[in-house]
Amino acid sequence: MSDIAEIQIRYFPGSPHLVMNERGDWCDLYVYEDMTLKAGESACIPLGIAMRLPIGYEAIIAPRSSTFKRTGLIQTNSVGVVDNSYSGNNDQWMMPVYATRDVVIEKGTRLCQFRIQERQPKLVFNEVATLNGPDRGGFGTSGK
What is the reported pTM? Predict the structure, then answer.
């Protein structure tokens, strides 16, 4: 893998431009429009961008570490996956959320972050009678 990957990006009008943080591998994403949510409501928060990822890559979107503390929002699908085919001019990235309390999120708020990774190769499942590996003790154990 190269140290530099080019991503084609289309900013929706007035959207903040992305800046890669030199101190980490994740890039912050910004709220595209003011949003008001009441406790118990869910919404897809627009992020004001569409991207064409490099061939063979996908993006992972996750909340910033401060998102819940500051907003009470939970990403409803825990993590977002954007594959390379979601790359049209109107394929705006969004973050689906659930509000645990009333909240106003202002345009430009850094709400979530993303990184790219190589996509999974095609898998073939080969059924066997035994795996011939040592058992770790089942779910929730470290093997000891």
Answer: 0.84
